[in-house]
Design brief:
9 helices
Length: 182
């Protein structure tokens, strides 16, 4: 890779690393798996960086690689994994106990979803992608995204940790930075 392309790739990684790892964490439920998954996707992106960097949205391309690499983990190993009950603590972040507990319930609820539904819910409601963008990342139709999101949200609504104390109130996903479900 030429020095200029190498520098552009390094800038991309520095700018997007934490966001990609956060998405990977929501897909895997484990910090170490998330970092490994992100590194795997970035290694594949590095090999094709010249082509990827010319695309309209390199981040979307790498995000698709991230989701594909995560799906490959399950195809190759056929291992079931469980998300942790609580997310890792973040340095310098002061969240109230309720929000931390709610976030832990959300992660546990996500663990109950099949990988495809989990990917749709994470990309659509955490990453705030449109249905068309999620469909492009996952290589499916927008109708599939809608149905998978509907099924995933319906399953999350029945999850005890998320439904407790919310009688008659619909559970709606919040956008990134708003912390969990309401």
């Amino acid at each position: 890779m030429q020095a200029e392309q190498e520098e552009r790739f390094q800038e991309f990684v520095r700018a997007r690393w934490s966001r990609l790892v956060r998405t990977a964490y929501l897909l895997t439920g484990d910090v170490h798996h998330a970092e490994d998954l992100t590194q795997t996707a970035l290694a594949k992106a590095y090999r094709s960086w010249r082509r990827i960097s010319r695309s309209d949205n390199p981040e979307a391309y790498v995000r698709r690689m991230l989701v594909s690499c995560n799906s490959d983990r399950f195809r190759k190993r056929r291992v079931s994994e469980a998300l942790t009950a609580a997310p890792p603590e973040r340095a310098g972040r002061d969240e109230s106990a309720g929000r931390v507990e709610e976030r832990g319930s959300l992660l546990a609820g996500l663990a109950q979803l099949p990988p495809r539904q989990r990917a749709v819910v994470v990309l659509r409601y955490w990453e705030d992608l449109s249905e068309a963008e999620v469909a492009e990342v996952l290589g499916c139709s927008p109708g599939t995204v809608k149905s998978q999101a509907s099924k995933g949200l319906a399953k999350l609504r029945t999850y005890p940790g998320l439904a407790a104390g919310r009688t008659g109130e619909r559970v709606q996903p919040q956008r990134q930075g708003q912390g969990g479900l309401r």
